[in-house]
């Protein structure tokens, strides 16, 4: 199998790099205002409310649209000038249904592989293999029109994967799916990233939903960058422990600080202690015992990634889905 199974993303060049990127449509709508961002290899969530400019960015990355200002590079290529190379190395799963209902899935995916330049026999093999990877092997000879929404989404994913790209661009892959279908699709996307080493940029207006499968997040709003960060950096900074004692909270703060911990006052009788490792819990327990204090509460306060992106406008649907999957 040509796929890299080492769990390493294949190239270290940025997936997408934009400088003051602008896209103004003919109707005078400015979809991207002044976007400067570097998206590194991994499974990257591109989040923003509907209309934020996510699909426009993806279409610019594919060379389907041209910028009206600034620049964009994909895998260090110019998507317009090097369109053919970009298409060979990038797979695209569009947001809306674009599948021919009268074709059978195996034929359609084979056809897409042929368009990508694979010879007939190889295209057939790759189509079967890819349909197996997305969980449609048994059903591959059925008409697409008879498929459920979840199966159609998988066919869209398969056609994006069939030519073994280095980068997958997925536009709202969970659209139209119920919570179980959403989870299954996201698990699949995660596996593609981790097992095959294919980088993925996955667009979603549901931050709470994609944060669990991503190595980094890029949030855009009204065509501008809101925030870009790796999940690691977020969770490291945000792992805090609340320690509450019945009395002598200042004494405890001083003693914990003396052990080298980062300690802050929190509420009346509680402290917030930064926890970089599990050993912090032992230090807290031992210090409280040494001071002979009555420990009231020790509680990990792992902040949701959403807290760090709280300036990202939320939708009602997001709140509902986050609650349903919690
Ligand atoms: N072809 C077009 N012509 C004119 N305006 C457009 C076109 N495509 C998108 N827009 C507008 O550009 C803005 C950004 O749209 P875009 O589709 O990129 O956002 P999005 O974040 O992907 O949202 P969605 O998930 O709803 O597609 C919106 O105001 C949208 O109405």
TrEMBL record:
Domain called ABC transporter: residue spans: 16-247
One Pfam family this sequence matches: ABC_tran
Gene3D superfamilies the UniProt entry points to: P-loop containing nucleotide triphosphate hydrolases (3.40.50.300)
Nucleotide-binding as UniProt keyword: yes
Any one GO molecular-function label of the UniProt entry: ATP binding
UniProt keyword annotation of Acetylation present: no
InterPro entries: AAA+_ATPase, ABC_transporter-like_ATP-bd, P-loop_NTPase
Alphabetized SUPFAM superfamilies for the sequence: P-loop containing nucleoside triphosphate hydrolases
PROSITE patterns: ABC_TRANSPORTER_2
Keywords: ATP-binding, Nucleotide-binding, Transport
Family: Belongs to the ABC transporter superfamily.
Name this polypeptide is given: ABC-2 type transport system ATP-binding protein
Organism: Labedaea rhizosphaerae
